[in-house]
Write a structure and sequence with these properties.
single chain, about 290 residues, alpha/beta, Rossmann fold, 5-stranded parallel sheet, 7 strands, about 10% strand, globular
Length: about 290
């Protein structure tokens, strides 16, 4: 359903970040359904509109409330690649934390459901548009929670493209140095970035081995296997931050994506009639009416 909703959004809004939802859907589903210990979400399942920069007479909207209250015993989820926001909105809808009606205003002027999420967007803890920074926020929050004796964990989803950023490795090095075993970092290793396949732009090698070399407890799993992701969490070493390199296929659910030109894959726009071709060939959409 996360993939199907992302597809519908891309069709209805003349483009969208579809491959990111295809690769991360199982990771997000596993986090929200099996792993994260979240409190009750926001009372308002249709978020209020964004009325401008918070200040006198202008209320502050924080999307983190859709992941429950920020309290010591509850976990927190931080999305680093903000262009994965559509997948997060879909995950919130499928777990009853957001109304599907909220998508009516998706990416419209004044909405909080932006195509590239910010801290006022549902399920988005911090603005992570500058890739690499949100992991550092997660490390800081994990350090504070550990020192305060809080039991809730910090979960951070990052993209493999972010591992080309030096700040990502500085953050992991700090997390290991301070023994932040309350930090869980999942990497969507879909092999893709804005300019095309990572192997042709800047290869990053084995992220499991790199993270381990920086002092983390690092494992590699099939990112489309919820049981494998859960098992990696359950076997985590005490005293070390956990990094799970989730190997994913960005065309999962939509085999027609394999035929697209590299320059038209990171952000998918459909030519006239192309969406129906995707609909006919997708195992997710065959027989599904509009």
């Amino acid at each position: 359903m996360i993939r199907r909703r992302a597809f519908d959004v891309a069709v209805e809004h003349h483009g969208g970040y579809l491959i990111q939802a295809c690769s991360s859907a199982d990771i997000l589903a596993t986090l929200y359904v099996e792993l994260m210990q979240l409190g009750p979400g926001a009372d308002n399942l249709v978020p209020p509109r964004f009325n401008g920069t918070p200040g006198t007479g202008v209320p502050e909207h924080w999307g983190g409330v859709y992941n429950g209250p920020d309290q010591p015993t509850y976990d927190r989820f931080i999305l680093s690649p903000s262009h994965y926001a559509t997948a997060v909105y879909a995950a919130l809808i499928e777990t009853g934390r957001l109304s599907s009606d909220a998508l009516t205003d998706y990416n419209a002027d004044g909405t909080t459901l932006e195509m590239i999420g910010a801290e006022h967007s549902p399920g988005i803890e911090v603005t992570g548009g500058s890739l690499g920074q949100a992991l550092s926020v997660g490390v800081g929050r994990a350090m504070w929670r550990k020192r305060a004796g809080h039991t809730g964990k910090i979960w951070v989803l990052i993209s493999d493209g972010e591992t080309q950023e030096g700040q990502t490795w500085e953050a992991l090095q700090a997390a290991a140095a301070f023994g932040l075993d309350n930090l869980r970092v999942l990497i969507d290793v879909n092999g893709w970035q804005v300019d095309g396949p990572m192997e042709s732009v800047m290869p990053v090698g084995c992220l499991r081995d790199k993270a381990a070399a920086f002092g983390c407890d690092a494992v590699e799993v099939d990112g489309h296997d919820p049981a494998a992701i859960c098992a990696a969490v359950l076997s985590a070493d005490r005293g070390k931050p956990l990094v799970i390199a989730c190997i994913t296929d960005p065309t999962t659910g939509f085999p027609a994506l394999k035929e697209r030109d590299d320059a038209q894959t990171h952000f998918v726009r459909f030519r006239p009639g192309e969406a129906e071709e995707y609909r006919r060939s997708s195992p997710l959409l065959v027989g599904v009416g509009r």
